[in-house]
Amino acid sequence: MDHWRRLLPGIGRQLWRYKLRSGLAIVCAALGVAGATTAVNYASGGREQVLTQIRRLGSNVLTISAEQSRGVADRARTGAIVTTLVPADYAAILRETAGVVRSSARVSGSLRLKAGYLSKVAPVVGVEPAWFGMKSWELAEGSLYTGEDEKRSARLAVIGATVARDLYGDDSPVGERLFINRVPFDVVGVLRERGAGLDGSTEDGQVYVPLNTAMRRLLNVDYYGAILLELDGPPRMPAATRDITALLRERHRMTEHRPDDFRVLSQTDLISAQLASADRLSFLVRWIGRSGLAVAGLGILAIAWITVRDRTREIGTRRALGATAPDIFFQFAAEAGLLAVIGALAGLAIGVVASRILATQAGLPLVVDAGNAAVALGLAIALNLTFASWPAVRAARMDPIRALRHE
Amino acid sequence: MIELEHVVKTYQREDGTPVPALRDITCRIGAGEFVTIRGSSGSGKSSLLNILGCLDTPTSGAYRLGGEDVSRYTDQERSAVRARRIGFVFQAFNLLPRTTAVENVEVPALYSGGDVDRGKALALLKRVGLAERSNHFVTELSGGEQQRVAIARALMNSPPLLLADEPTGNLDSAVGDSIMELLTDLNREGLTIVLVTHDERVASYAARELLIRDGVLASDRAQPRRPSLHAATEGAAHVVG
Prior knowledge:
The structure holds two protein chains of two kinds. By secondary structure, chain A is α+β, with helices and mostly antiparallel strands. Chain A has helices spanning 8-17, 19-57, 87-96, 130-134, 147-151, 161-168, 211-219, 237-251, 267-310, 312-320, 325-362, 370-397, 400-405; strands at residues 61-66, 100-115, 118-127, 139-142, 156-159, 177-180, 183-191, 207-210, 226-231, 262-266.
């Protein structure tokens, strides 16, 4: 074994002097690994995006929205303003539902904003401070309003990133004055930019004010558009949905045949469908990547095979000069193995760069799946060594007398 | 040096019928001899060379090399014998392509278990008159120069025995003569040489000729050496090393 160390410089020289063949083998191995890692990173990026959006919607969140789902046979009344979801319902839901971690009611309306000379119409949303936590939405600067501000109907506003840009340009809006329907508000915070959500809507163009302030000073309503509840785990969701539906039907005195005037929506349903499709995609992509590795391995095999055939006479000569069959095996296995390792490492580097480019182009988060990269690398090297050892065995088993006379 | 006793080599055709190549060869070659094995194509001389070179084993009979019976050695053991005790020179030179002269000369050292001695490889190239060409690729060398590199390579592990298979077969006669002069010189310095050829002119360089015909030794005779051209080529080829 030890004397094989002496063969290594010659092996290096050999590979260097047969540049075309070595280059092809390296490219072959590299493309396999690059393809496998890029494809999986891309799929992981897609999954990560779904997960991000899930966190944004709020996990374990039930949304009870006031809405006329379907009217009686001839009258479709979806979208009509429903005024029946009231603070007493909210209090009853909180009292009766088990496992509520936090909650917020929500009202909204489109109102005119004005800051300095600039003005625009935008959705203004009244929510309790807990709402931001449920949506795991963080501030870019400033602070949120508090429960205290909520109680005294303070005229404070937290604005989305788009609103901040449109009305204040590059200046910091925190501490600035914002008129909403001519009512003066103080901007206390700017939310971090999030982009479009799963449903394509963007929340960056909205203004958020305390719930009570919105109801009393801006919209003059005593009913909610929606109530959001965060429960302490997914197992609670089905029972909670059932109980709340029964509770509200009873409180709203719905007779048996009337449709609900509200809807209880669990984010989990939407999420699990999205996640399942992302998982199916990454499963598929993983296997496409692996078959890429197999194809690359076959390429290495073909090149090694041709190499052994072309060097038959060299094999005979080395044998005559004293090389044992294991020496010949080592020579060819080491040559192919070295190329496979160099190629696989190059492929890994290419894969990371390609993933970066692809993520930027597709607007996905860049995910470098290190575990998968290690698997792809290990698999590629193991596969290529296995494939390359076949021609090497053939070289080692050659009859030296025939190999010497080979033309 | 070499003792063959009743050596028989029989090949099997694909349909199983036996083809005798060597029928019953018995001979001795002493240390320091220069012997040619001459025979026409199909006479069995290649089979004999393969056995002498430990590339093949006899079907029956004994082959003792330096007193050691190597005829039942395993493949691995025969590789070690080839590496340390036999130097090979081939008709087609069999140098490694895309490799320099000196790297070719070093190849046997890779398999002999010792360290590769670049200085020795360079000294051997100097000995065969190619000191200036040691870093040239083999494709940049003429046929005669390539065969000189091959001879230097055969000497790398200082084997006591050199086997040459038609060493001048691919060279024109003037260049072939110079190669034979080189071999003659090496023999004078104590190297045992066994040379296989079908060419009587080449055979005439040796002091003893074995004629092989149909797998048996047809004659074994000493012969006067060919008048040497040594004096004329000494300056070019002979460097005391």
